[in-house]
């Protein structure tokens, strides 16, 4: 026996945000994007480095 599920249309949520909060969120977003770019560049640099020789295990 199959079950029938009633689906509802999606609800819209309205949010109020102050201008200073919006500016703060945009600043945080910009800082995070810069950090992501910095970390990507760091990782890319790590991938391009030749592997360090490791001592042989005896």
TrEMBL record:
<keyword id="KW-0175">Coiled coil</keyword>
<protein>
    <submittedName>
        <fullName>Uncharacterized protein</fullName>
    </submittedName>
</protein>
<dbReference type="InterPro" id="IPR046068">
    <property type="entry name" value="DUF6026"/>
</dbReference>
<feature type="coiled-coil region">
    <location>
        <begin position="15"/>
        <end position="42"/>
    </location>
</feature>
<dbReference type="Pfam" id="PF19491">
    <property type="entry name" value="DUF6026"/>
</dbReference>
């Amino acid at each position: 026996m199959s079950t029938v599920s009633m689906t509802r249309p999606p609800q819209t949520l309205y949010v109020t945000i102050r201008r200073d909060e919006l500016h703060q969120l945009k600043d945080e977003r910009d800082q995070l994007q810069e950090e992501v770019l910095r970390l990507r560049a760091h990782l890319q640099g790590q991938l391009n480095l030749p592997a360090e020789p490791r001592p042989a295990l005896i």
